[in-house]
Amino acid sequence: MGEYYKWVNVDRKEYICPGDFDLGNKLLESAAFHNPFLCALRELLDNEWKGERFLFLGDEKEIPGDSDNDVLKTLYRHSLECGHEGSSEDTVFEAYKNISGQFCAAETIVRSNISTYIKDLNSGEDAVNEYRIDAEDPYAGLFTRSGKDLTYTINRTKKVYYSSKDTKVIIPGFSHIKKANCDPLPFLMRHGYWGLGEWVGDEIAVSDSVPEGYSFLKTITIDY
Predict the structure, then answer these.
(1) pLDDT value of residue 176
(2) What is the reported pLDDT for 172?
(3) What is the DSSP string of the chain?
(4) Could you say which residues of the chain have pLDDT below 50?
(5) How many domains is the chain built from?
(6) Which candidate, 146, 163, 145, places its Cα nearest to that of 154?
(7) Residue 81: which of 10, 134, 132 has the closest Cα?
(8) What domain range is 187 assigned to?
């Protein structure tokens, strides 16, 4: 089936899932610039996720207990706290909140998922409240945000940035990806079967303004 990914904030214990936005869950399937899932991420990074630690987390690789990466160390600690040592999928599913439902683009699928959850709950079946909703008022506060398609993605740790308009993204062996205008952020921030992205643990920001004193990444080549 392949590895499934989510954008996960380890500070807030929150995540958004591409499947909720009617996109594929694999690494390449939600990586096109300007898609609603990445616009949701950028709105979060421009607001409550600003300055916080996050990554694009796959479900096929264990969280290492001996990593010196601060994000992975935090994930591993959370896995111990919820009794799922090293399991990224079980840890996120049990200890984190899915906030995809805040966004209009996820309404159709999230409504369907919540409806199924309510039916299972009322019938006495096992039901997991992944959106952490109130069953008495399940859609309260949901589907109010539209996302942001900001031009520049900034790595404040490395003092570099790239543009959704002017940066050329190259993935060797995947020439068709270049034509699809692939956003490199999911690759730079990944952890899973394909390894650890080189930006995981860095402070990432988004903006429509060019940051002063930062180097522009005219070309990004992805190791994939």
Answers:
(1) 52
(2) 83
(3) ----EEEEETTTTEEE-GGGGT---STTTT-BTT-HHHHHHHHHHTTTTTT--EEEEESSSPPPTT---HHHHHHHHHHHHTT-TT-HHHHHHHHSEE-GGGBGGGHHHHHHHHHHHHHHHHTT-----TT---TTSTTTT-S-B-----SEEEETTTTEEEETTT-EEE-TT-HHHHHTTB-SHHHHTEEETTEE-TTTTS-EEEESSPPTT-EE-SEEE---
(4) 178-179
(5) 1
(6) 163
(7) 10
(8) 5-221
Please tell me the pTM assigned to this model.
0.95
Contacts of 94 (CB under 8 A, 6+ apart): 82, 84
What pLDDT, in 10s, does the model give residues 153-185? 999 999 999 999 999 999 886 655 544 589 999
Joined together, the tokens standing for residue 213 give 């004193």
Bridge pairing between strands 54-58 and 5-9: antiparallel
> 203 and 51 in contact (C-beta within 8 Å)?
yes
User: How far apart are the C-alpha atoms of 175 and 171, rounded to whole Å?
Assistant: 7
